[in-house]
Design brief:
globular; 7-stranded parallel β-sheet; alpha/beta; 235 residues
């Protein structure tokens, strides 16, 4: 029986790279993102590759809407065997000294509460089967404190911490949890930063189940940028 991948925060770059990698290995793919028109285009692209896919629009920050989309995906394609969570930051990105309660809350609602909502929905089926994979994506600001990404880094560091805690707790039950740290831009044709190359890394992580974290890109280069006082808004 075909397995199901659910991507929360699907987009034309990373999300589609992951979708193609799993779809080419026999997975059905559920795509969840905010815009129906964009989702329809992504589903058509996957269909052109012979991959069964369906789109389910929802604003990830709206927990009721996200739960409804996950329920519809389960009804249409079956329980999730793999959940991949990777929304892009939206809303104002603040420097450390300019961070406000509102700016932090917006990022936590997206990255942390969105992930908790998605995991809460798919995890009971995985625990009942004694099998499943959760892949939670963060950016390099989850590991390197960057003043120009303060509110995003706070949220992503929290998500990364929780992913590692889940890995430890759920591994004895047969549920694999991994976090993927993206420390580079995602560039078509860019070698290891090409969406399909990144998607292949996600698939290997799912297949091997031998690590809690995968790092894509050069964390050292980002740390050096921060040390030089770099102020470009990077994830």
């Amino acid at each position: 029986m075909a397995k199901t991948l659910v991507i929360v925060g699907a987009g034309p770059g990373l999300g589609m790279g992951v979708a193609r990698a799993f779809g080419r290995n026999g997975f059905r793919v559920a795509l969840i993102a905010r815009t129906k028109g964009r989702l329809d285009g992504l589903v058509d692209d996957l269909a052109g590759l012979g991959i069964t896919a369906a789109g389910f629009p929802a604003d990830i920050r709206d927990r009721d809407a996200l739960t409804a989309a996950l329920t519809a995906a389960r009804r249409t394609l079956g329980p999730a065997d793999v959940l991949e969570f990777s929304p892009s930051p939206t809303g104002p990105i603040t420097h450390a000294a300019q961070t406000t309660v509102a700016s932090v809350t917006a990022q936590f609602e997206l990255h942390v509460l969105g992930a908790v909502t998605a995991v809460e929905h798919v995890l009971p089926d995985m625990r009942a089967r004694g099998a499943g994979t959760l892949l939670l994506t963060t950016g390099v600001s989850s590991t390197v404190p960057a003043p120009f990404l303060a509110n995003v880094g706070m949220a992503m560091a929290g998500l990364r911490n929780w992913a590692h805690a889940l890995h430890t707790e759920l591994e004895p039950e047969g549920v694999h949890v991994g976090t993927v740290t993206i420390a580079s831009g995602i560039v078509p044709g860019g070698g290891e930063t090409d969406p399909d190359a990144i998607g292949a890394r996600y698939y290997r992580m799912y297949e091997r189940r031998d690590r809690a974290e995968e790092v894509i890109g050069d964390v050292g280069a980002f740390r050096a940028l921060v040390g030089r006082g770099g102020c470009q808004a990077r994830r």
